Amino acid sequence: MNARTSALDALVFGVDVQSGDVRGDAPSYAVVAYDGENVDRDVVSFRKLRRLIEREEPALLATDNVYELATDRDDLVRFLRWLPDRTRLVQVTGAERPEPLSRVASRHGVPYGKKPMKEAEAAARLAAANVGHEVTAFTDTTTVKVSRGRSTGKGGWSQDRYTRRIHGNVKARAREVERTLDEANLDYEQDITEKYGGYANAVFTVEAAPEDIPVSKARSGDTRVEIERERRDGIEFEPLVKRRDRVLVGIDPGTTTAAAVVGLDGAVLDVYSTRTADTAGVIEWLVERGRPVVVAADVEPMPETVEKFRRSFDAAGWEPDTDLPVDEKLHRTREHAYDNDHERDAMAAALFAFDAYEDQFERISRKVPAGFDRGEVIDRVISGDTSVEAVLRDLSDDDEAEEEESTHEPRELSPEERRIKRLERQVERLESKVDELESTLSEKDERIAEYEEELSEARREERREARERREVNRLERETDRLERERDEEHERAEELASKLERLKTLWKLDHSDFADVAQGRDLVPVKVVEQFTWDAIDAADEAYGLAAGDVVYLRDASGAGRSTAQRLAETDPRVVLRDGTLPDAADEVLFDAGVPVAPAADVTIQEVDELAVARESEVAAAIEDWERRADERSRERKSEMVDQIISEHRAESGD
Q: What is the pTM (predicted TM-score) of this model?
């Protein structure tokens, strides 16, 4: 196995449009599932493809063009957000400027056919060999938000208590999430919005991908937990693996030295600038990122510093015919990010060098058969100024050439030849040592893989325990809620029992009252009306009924009109006891209806909650007093009528 990691230990899906279009009504897809040995093929609709991905959760979803799965950039972001956490979307034909799939497959020796099923299989095999770029729209920063699961606008009993309960549950759930993140040793920042009784929400910004966070989306009762990855500014294409491929390098020397690395496909791989590193430091940075085929400058002639870099890598050099204008450099680098003008100039030099060599790279690539390293062939052709055929012959020749027979007698070796022999033996010993170390390293890699598997199993067990703890906490919260409801019901029962005792006490009154009852003087119930209004009369009628012969107590008799008095008179009460001043209009209506009205101060009224009683004797006395006053009032009214008639008669006679 080479330095590139293998994906063959995981399931890979290759997809290609079979018919229709994702922008149309019903596209269908050729799907190939490849695990390194077995190949399964099927043709499915887009909806069934999504269900298949959700069920199988492949490690890689490979295609030659990601916009066969999405209509536009926003739709692609939504598709990436929907993908399972452990599934990566891969475009096997390159980054922003993809190559034809046939060319990529030919370069890597993968079978290719023009039918959609063959293209899907080629994409799956290429991705399994770690060919292509992962398509991503999100960073490894994840937002976990704990918030209210329902509105605080309504409450089952008290509005304040309802709101306080919701905010308290949000706070408790946020603390559970905080403990879980601490137990998982994850770095995070916390932003809390406090409200009455607890939290309105708590936002955790976690430096980890969703699959590494032992918290899941949930909505339960008063709380909900939302998980969302942080969005990048755009869509990014990242190579599946980084290796030391052949590259083009642009150098901008000076007080600040800048370097840019561009792949043989024209993609900008990296850019770098420094004011402190020497030439050796820059060379080390370049070596880590590839093997330079061409070293380029943005001015003519090539500066001596750039020439030193070129000689260090034994690479071909490129320089423009004249110094590159700033506007051309700005235009050529407009699609790429850089931090300063030096990085821009280095990037422009590398990109213009790629433009100059692009046609030659393509001609060489077309001639390179499967099984040969395209980058190595290009490197030898460009740097050695030789033909592709000669390089291919060179690479195909047997390393071990036949030794020519010699007939001369052995001669004594010179000191230089003996030194060469000694150095050759030393090289052999070092190579043997290197092989031994590589073997040891391989064993350690296998051991690390075993430890990683054990660690993964331990994490799965830890997540399972965390889920159990969350379930226990949920049940404990439910138990607390039921206990609170039980306590509230107990309190209500105690209140009702206390009210019942007060009612009993009301009827007992004191010992002398019982003597009165024994002598035939009974108590009479009084029905209380809070205000002399239609609404208050209707409320009392609905609560305990107003019937003929009732003793009615108006707690506030002011403010009534004729219609309100008529409404009360219709109930035909025995007597109306009042507090406050009764309006003349209402008094007139009640008097005409023959309803006795007496001040409440003349009768002793005893109340418990909404119930009241009065002594029968006092009520009867109040009625007698009203009847006496009513007789006088009637006589006065008749006298006034007689006087008025006489006055009117005299007035008419005088006329």
A: 0.39
Q: How many Å apart are CA 336 and CA 10, to the nearest integer?
A: 33
3-state SS string for 251-319 = EECCCCEEEEEEECCCCEEEEEEECCCCHHHHHHHHHCCCEEEEEECCCCCCCHHHHHHHHHHCCEEEC
Could you tell me which residues are beta bridge partners of residue 259? 251, 272
Tokens of 81: 């957000």
> pLDDT digit string (tens) for 450-459?
888 888 888 8
- Of 382, 381, 332, the residue nearest 355 (C-alpha): 332
Print the SS3 string covering 518-578: HCCCCEEEEEEECCCCHHHHHHHHHHHCCCCCCEEEECCCCCCCHHHHHHHHCCCCCEEEE
Tens-place pLDDT, residues 177-205: 999 988 888 889 999 988 878 888 999 99
**Angle between helical axes of 584-592 and 562-569 (0-180°, round to 10):** 30
Q: Could you read off the pLDDT of 506-553 as tens digits, one per residue? A: 645 443 343 343 344 568 888 899 898 999 898 888 877 888 888 999
Q: Which of 25-34, 215-224, 235-244 has the highest mean pLDDT?
A: 25-34
What pLDDT score does 200 carry?
A: 86
**Nearby residues of 232 by Cβ (< 8 Å), 6 or more positions away:** 136, 137, 138, 139
Residues 6 or more apart whose Cβ sits within 8 Å of residue 292: 246, 247, 248, 249, 286, 309, 313, 315
Q: What's 213's DSSP letter?
A: S
Q: What is the pLDDT of residues 532-545, one digit of tens each?
A: 899 989 888 887 78
Q: Looking only at Cα atoms, what is the longest distance across the chain?
A: 183
CA angle at 497 for the pair 492 and 500, rounded to the nearest 5°: 130
What angle, 0 to 180 degrees and rounded to 10, lies between the N-to-C axes of helices 388-396 and 341-367? 70
Q: What are phi and psi of 358, to 5 degrees?
A: -55, -45
79 CB-near residues (< 8 Å, 6+ apart): 69, 70, 89
Cα–Cα distance between 401 and 398 in angstroms, integer? 7
Residue 29: enclosing H or E segment and its boundaries? strand 28-34
CA 438 to chain centre: 45
